[in-house]
Structures are given as structure tokens and as C-alpha cells.
Design a protein that fits this description.
EXOC6/Sec15_C; 802 residues; two-stranded antiparallel ribbon; single chain; 75% helix; transport; exocytosis; coiled coil; EXOC6/Sec15; mainly alpha
């Protein structure tokens, strides 16, 4: 059964192979190989092939005789065909030989006709192509000559007019395809020109700014000359109307007429041609580039690029050099670059339509203003030279005036100049501190000797001093003050001139200038000069003579303050009675210095007295005192006499106060000698010697070492000591104890505590000297009396405390 099925399957496959296209036989054969009857199938296939071969052989044997007959007929026809061929060949040769000349003529005619047509077509085509080529050549020449805008116009004509006429040609198509590239190339070349222009103005900004500032400087100088001439003319007319004539025309040496160091002489440069920004820089590239980008429809791109690049350049220009503050030239280059930048922008603003607008320029100016002010604040703070600060101020004013002439607001610059003015004042104060110190250190603190009229007039010209009595005295004579008075006064005026120079050209009113000068002068007086005087007064090696001279000098300087007031009024033309006018503090400054010097005199006198008192060598156990005052006291009195002689030129109250202070200190110090804890015992002889010394002091007080005391006022300084000594020497205890507390008491100035302390020291001495004589009646009575007085004094003290 299985063999029958396998045979049927093989038969089916064979039929399928016979009937199926060979391209689709693959799956059929795969089924054969996938099965298990592969060998049996091959046998069946061989049998089927043998059957088909037998069928083919039978068919061929059946048609063989007809094939043989056909071959025979064909051989017969071949012979006839060979004859016909040879006849045709002969005929053709004869025909060719006969028509050869005609063919050649026709060929020549054909070639001529073809050439004629080609020439006509070529002429027609060249008439279309030559204008295209000429325009293209013209375009190339214009681009090579960097004539970008004409090149753009040529390109436009080529594209719209000439190329459409010859659009069928390949080279025209290539040209048409290259037109965007050529436009882009023209655009890039014009942008390259713009970049060169930007680089050029970056390099020339400093020169442009320098030129613009020169022009502003010359204009300001011319305006100043015209203004001065107008003022001089009106002043002459006013004097003529007043009947003064021209007597005062020569006296016009006002500090306001002084030219600052930064101002150029107009006469020297009036023949020099000053170039403008358009003369220094060729602006045509930016105009061409702007026009090209406008034509190409990329104006916005061009404007954005130009503004972006100029903003970058602005940031570079506004970045100052780190060492800019060292020299004025550094500031000048910085300002020239900024001015040059904005002069160019102003020129672009007014010569182009919309490339830059006012809002853009104002934005750049606000940025520049803030960065410039910040840079100036930073770098000017490093400056310590007042001349450099003054030159910088003049340069800033010129910088502001230049830019203001181009329409830029500069109020913030002038506000910043007011800040620099305060810094300038501080620098001046530091400089004048050194000047005053040098003057005070180099002074000899002696009255100025005058040996001739010339010297007298010179000194009187430096300092406003008038003394008719001194003028009447013959030469040689002396001014009462020392050298530092005229020198300090001259330096005060120099300081005022320096302040005035800075206030010029700041567009300030006379009142504001006057107020600024007065405030700065007050700082100079109240802080700088006052500190210098205080330092001189309080230094260790200063002597009484120097202190006395300082008091005399400050007195004269105080009196000169009104002349300083008049001096400021004259140079500012602001009357002192103006409500807003600031008053000078010079009077209080010199008063404070004088009071300090007076206190220092009192202190030095007391120190000298203490030094003499340290030489005191009392024999506190002496049995009897000598008849002469102690040596140390004699030397002290002689010193006081010589010292108070020097006080002749001092104000009366100062000399009197110093004398009274010295006497009081001497009295107090002598009393302290008696009451020192180291002095345990005092004999009556020692007390008598002490009394002689006190009498010497009283004799000095009565002699009137300083005039001006009424009666025995100076003796009151020793009244406490005198009453104490009288009480002990006269041993008048009954009167003291009986009258104690009454206003009319003879010993009103004797303090019970002081009397008790001294009595205790004498009590111990009495006991020591009389311990072997204690059985004598007189000695015992005296001892009892001392004990009684001691008890009563203690009772008084206790009653007083209660």
C-alpha cells in the first residue's frame, strides 16, 4: 500500500515538473529531497527521460525526406544568386564612375550651404551672447576695483536684462547659477570694507578726539578773550564815567586772569588748520556698505552688525590702562579715544538715515558716562600730586566742553568734578601740612631783625602789619613776630589761590566759589595749621622763649584774619555781608593755639620750679636757721626774674596769669615739702630757715616781676604758707584756737589738718631733744601745751567733719 502511494506521488511530481515553468521548479524538487523515496524517484525520472527520447527520435525519422529535398533546391538557387550579384556589382561600378563628379559637386554645395547657415546662426547667437559677456567682464572689473555698488548695479542688469535673452546657453545658465554667489561675494567684500573702516576709526579715534578737543579748546580760549575784552571795555567805561580815568588799568593782577597749564595759546595756533573727523577718516566705505545691504534687503543685518561692533569698541575704549593715574598723558589718551569714538558716532548719526539713532547713541553715552566716572573716581583716588589733580580737572572740563558741543549731556561729569574738588582739597591739606611743618621746624622763634628800609618794606609786603611806633624807630629794629608769621600768611594766600584755580571753568556761581574757598580755608586753619601748631607747642624740646614767641605770632596771625577775609572777597567778588557767606575760623584757631601755648607755658614754668625744688636740701633737724635764703631758692628767683623779663611782649593777662600760676605752684610745692611723709621730724631752727626762704619769695612777689598787678595781689599766692609759718614761729595758738571759724580770724587760711600734721612732726622732735630734760619744769609745761594744742586741733577737725 505504501509503495503504491509513493509511486503515485512520484508520478504527480513528474507531471508537475513537465508542466511547470523552470523558475518555479524549486519547491517541487525540495519536496523530493525532503522525502525518503529519493532513489525511487530518480529511477522514475530516468525512465521518463528515455520515453521522451524515443518520441523525439520517431518524429525526426518521419520528416527526414522533406529536409533532404529542401537542401537540394537551395543549392540550385545559390548559383543563380551569384550571377545576379556579379551583374549588380558591375552596374553599380559603372554608375559610381558616372556620378562621382556630380556627387563631389553636391557635397561641396552641401558644405557651403551648411557653413553659411552656421555663420548666420553664429552671428545671431553672438549678438545675444556678447552683451552678456561684456557685462560679465565689466562686473569682474568692478569687483576687482572694489567698486561694489556699481558692480551690484551691473549684476542686476545682467540678471534681469541680458541673461534672459541667452538663457538657452550653458554658460548663461552657469552665470545665472553664480549670480547668488556673486551677490554674496559683493556682500562679503563690502563687509570686509566695513571691517577695515571700523579698524580705521578704532586706530584714528585718539587723533579724532585730540583734534576735536583742540577745536573746543581754541573756541573756549577765543570766547574767554572776547569776554575779557568786553569786561575790560565796560570797566574802562565805568571808570571813565566815575572820573577815575585809566589810573587803575595797570593794577589788574587778579588770579582769575591766570591761564591754567592745560590751555593752549590761541595766537600760536590760529594759522594751523584743524582737521575734522571727516578729514581724518574716509566714511565712504560705511555709506557704500549701508547702501549695498539696503539694496540686498539686509539693512537690518548691517545695522545690527555695525552697532554690535561699535559697542565692543566702546567697551575697549572705555577700559582705562592700569597706570593711567601716573601721568596726565595717560588721562589725555583716555579722553581722546572716548571723544573720538563719539565724534564718529555723531557724524554717522547726522550723515546716515537710521544706521544709528539718537536712542542708540544716548545708550552708548550713558554707558560711557558711568564707566568714565567710575574709572576717574578709581584712578584719581591714587593721585597725591595737587598739580596733577588740577591738570586733570582742566582736562575733564575740556573733555566735557568738547562733548557738550556735540550735544551730549555732561552734568554728571561736573558733579563728579565737585567730588574731585573735595579730594583736591584733601591733597592740598596734606601738602600744606608738610609746608607748615617745614616752616615751623625751620623757624628760629626770634623777632625778625630789620637792618634797612628795603627789608622792612619786603616783610611788610608779605604780611599786613602796621605799627607807627615801630616805623619811627631807627634801623636796626625788629618786628615783634618771627619768620613763620609772614611765611604762614603767604602760604594761606597760596592755598586760597590753589582752591580758586580748581573752581575755575566749573560753571559755578561766585557765591559757590566763595563758599568752597572759605570752607577749604577753614579746614586748613582749623585742622591742618591748628594741628601743626599744637604739635610744635607740645613737643618736648620746646622752651619758654619759643612758647612766648608762638603766642606773639598767633596773636598777629589772628589779627590778620580780617585781611584774609578781604582777600577772599576781592578774588571772588562776593561781599562778606552776604547771608550765605561762610566766616573764617582763623580767630578761634589761633586763639586755641595761643591758649595751648599759654597752658604749656604754665606747665613748663611749674616743671622748672619743680626741678629747682628737687635741689632743696633742708636740714630738718637744724637747731638754728641761717640768715640767708637757701641757694636753690636764690637760683629759682633769679630764673623767674629772667623768665618774666621775656614776657614783656606777651599780652598783659598772659604774663600776669603765668606769674600768678608760678607763685601759687611755688607756694603749694613749698608747703608740700613741709608735709612730705618722708620728713618725720622738723625742728624750730629748720622752720626758721624755711621762713627765710618764704620771705624771699614774698620779696619777689612785692617786686612786681610782671606789671599790672594791683597792690599786693601777687602776695596772696603765699598767704596760706605765711599764716602757717607765723602761727608756728610766733606760737600763737591761743589766738588761732579762739578765733577759728570767724571771718576776721588772723589765721583764716590755716587748715587744722595742715597745722596738726606739722605740729605732730615738731612734737616728735621736742620729745627726742628733751628726753633727758623731762624733769625741767619749763620743758614739761611746753610738752603739755603741745599735747593740749594737738587735742584741741583734733577736736576742731572732728567737729568740722561732724
Amino acid at each position: 500500500m505504501a509503495s503504491l502511494e509513493a509511486a503515485a506521488e512520484n508520478e504527480r511530481i513528474l507531471r508537475e515538473i513537465e508542466s511547470t515553468d523552470t523558475n518555479c521548479i524549486g519547491p517541487t524538487l525540495r519536496s523530493v529531497y525532503d522525502g525518503q523515496e529519493h532513489g525511487h524517484f530518480m529511477e522514475k525520472l530516468e525512465g521518463r527521460i528515455r520515453n521522451h527520447d524515443r518520441d523525439i527520435e520517431k518524429m525526426c525519422n518521419f520528416h527526414y525526406q522533406g529536409f533532404v529535398d529542401s537542401i537540394t533546391e537551395l543549392l540550385k538557387v545559390r548559383g543563380e544568386a551569384q550571377k545576379l550579384k556579379s551583374q549588380v556589382t558591375d552596374t553599380n561600378s559603372k554608375l559610381q564612375d558616372a556620378g562621382k563628379e556630380l556627387v563631389n559637386s553636391m557635397e561641396e554645395l552641401k558644405q557651403c550651404r551648411l557653413q553659411q547657415r552656421n555663420i548666420a546662426a553664429t552671428v545671431d547667437k553672438l549678438s545675444l551672447c556678447l552683451p552678456v559677456l561684456e557685462m560679465y567682464n565689466k562686473l569682474q572689473e568692478q569687483m576687482q576695483a572694489r567698486r561694489h555698488y556699481p558692480a551690484l548695479k551691473t549684476l542686476e542688469q545682467l540678471e534681469l536684462i541680458y541673461l534672459p535673452r541667452a538663457s538657452q546657453y550653458r554658460f548663461c545658465k552657469i552665470m545665472s547659477e553664480n549670480i547668488p554667489k556673486l551677490r554674496s561675494e559683493i556682500k562679503d567684500l563690502s563687509m570686509s570694507d566695513l571691517k577695515d573702516f571700523l579698524e580705521s576709526i578704532r586706530k584714528h579715534s585718539e587723533k579724532i578726539g585730540e583734534t576735536a578737543m583742540k577745536q573746543a579748546q581754541q573756541q573756549r580760549s577765543l570766547d574767554s578773550i572776547v569776554s575779557n575784552q568786553q569786561r575790560a571795555g565796560s570797566a574802562r567805561r565805568a571808570r571813565k564815567e566815575a572820573g577815575l580815568g585809566t589810573e587803575l588799568e595797570g593794577d589788574s593782577s587778579s588770579p582769575m586772569s591766570e591761564q591754567d597749564s592745560g590751555i593752549l595759546d590761541v595766537e600760536d595756533e590760529e594759522d594751523e588748520e584743524v582737521l575734522g573727523a571727516q578729514d581724518l577718516v574716509d566714511f565712504s566705505p560705511v555709506y557704500r556698505c549701508l547702501h549695498i545691504y539696503t539694496v540686498l534687503g539686509a539693512r537690518d543685518t548691517f545695522e545690527n552688525y555695525y552697532r554690535k561692533q561699535r559697542r565692543k569698541q566702546a567697551r575697549l575704549v572705555l577700559q582705562p590702562h592700569s597706570n593711567m593715574h601716573e601721568t596726565l598723558e595717560g588721562y589725555r589718551k583716555y579722553f581722546n579715544q572716548i571723544v573720538g569714538f563719539f565724534v564718529v558716532e555723531d557724524h554717522i548719526l547726522h550723515t546716515t538715515q537710521g544706521l544709528v539713532n539718537r536712542a542708540y547713541v544716548d545708550e552708548l553715552w550713558d554707558l560711557a558716562l558711568s564707566k568714565t566716572i567710575a574709572a576717574l573716581r578709581t584712578h584719581s583716588s591714587y593721585c597725591t600730586d595737587p598739580n596733577l589733580v588740577l591738570d586733570l580737572k582742566n582736562l575733564i572740563v575740556l573733555f566735557a566742553d568738547t562733548l557738550q558741543g556735540f550735544g551730549f549731556p555732561v552734568n554728571q561729569l561736573f558733579d563728579m568734578l565737585l567730588e574731585i574738588r573735595d579730594q583736591y582739597s584733601e591733597i592740598l591739606l596734606k601738602k600744606w601740612t608738610v609746608v607748615f611743618r617745614q616752616i615751623l621746624d625751620q623757624d628760629n622763634y626770634s623777632p625778625i631783625p630789620v637792618v634797612s628800609e628795603e627789608v622792612y618794606r619786603k616783610t611788610a609786603g608779605q604780611f599786613p602789619f602796621q605799627d607807627p611806633e615801630l616805623e619811627k624807630l631807627p634801623f636796626p629794629k625788629k618786628f615783634p613776630f618771627s619768620e613763620f608769621v609772614p611765611k604762614v600768611y603767604s602760604q594761606l594766600k597760596e592755598f586760597i589761590y590753589a582752591c580758586l584755580k580748581f573752581s575755575e571753568d566749573l560753571h559755578l556761581s561766585s557765591t559757590e566759589i566763595d563758599d568752597m574757598i572759605r570752607k577749604s580755608t577753614n579746614l586748613l586753619l582749623a585742622r591742618t595749621l591748628s594741628n601743626c601748631l599744637q604739635n610744635v607747642i607740645k613737643r618736648r624740646n620746646v622752651g619758654l622763649t619759643e612758647l612766648v614767641q608762638i603766642i606773639i605770632n598767633t596773636t598777629h596771625l589772628e589779627q590778620s584774619c580780617r585781611y584774609l577775609e578781604e582777600f577772599i572777597t576781592n578774588i571772588t567778588n562776593v561781599p562778606p555781608e552776604t547771608v550765605q557767606a561762610t566766616k573764617l575760623y582763623g580767630t578761634s584757631t589761633f586763639k586755641d593755639a595761643r591758649h595751648t601755648a599759654e597752658e604749656e607755658i604754665y606747665t613748663n614754668l611749674n616743671q622748672k620750679i619743680d626741678q629747682f625744688l628737687q635741689l632743696a636740701d633742708y636740714d630738718w633737724m637744724a637747731a638754728q636757721g641761717s640768715c640767708e635764703p637757701s641757694d636753690y631758692l636764690s637760683d629759682l628767683i633769679a630764673f623767674l626774674y629772667s623768665t618774666f623779663t621775656v614776657f614783656t611782649h606777651l599780652p598783659g593777662k598772659v604774663a600776669q596769669t603765668a606769674c600768678m600760676s608760678a607763685c601759687k605752684h611755688l607756694s603749694t610745692s613749698l608747703l608740700q615739702l613741709l608735709l612730705e611723709s618722708e620728713v618725720k621730724q622738723i625742728s624750730l631752727g629748720a622752720l626758721q630757715q624755711f621762713n627765710i626762704d618764704v620771705k624771699e619769695c614774698e620779696r619777689f612777689a612785692r617786686s612786681g616781676p610782671v606789671p599790672g598787678f594791683q597792690g599786693d595781689t601777687l602776695l596772696l599766692a603765699f598767704i596760706d604758707l605765711r599764716q602757717l609759718l607765723d602761727l608756728f614761729i610766733q606760737w600763737d595758738w591761743s589766738t588761732y584756737l579762739a578765733d577759728y571759724g570767724r571771718p576776721t580770724c588772723k589765721y583764716l587760711r590755716v587748715n587744722p589738718n595742715t597745722a596738726l600734721a606739722l605740729l605732730e612732726k615738731m612734737k616728735d622732735t621736742s620729745r627726742k631733744n628733751n628726753m633727758f630734760a623731762q624733769f625741767r619744769k619749763n620743758e614739761r609745761d611746753k610738752q603739755k601745751l603741745i599735747d593740749t594744742v594737738v587735742k584741741q586741733l583734733r577736736s576742731l577737725i572732728n567737729a568740722h567733719h561732724s
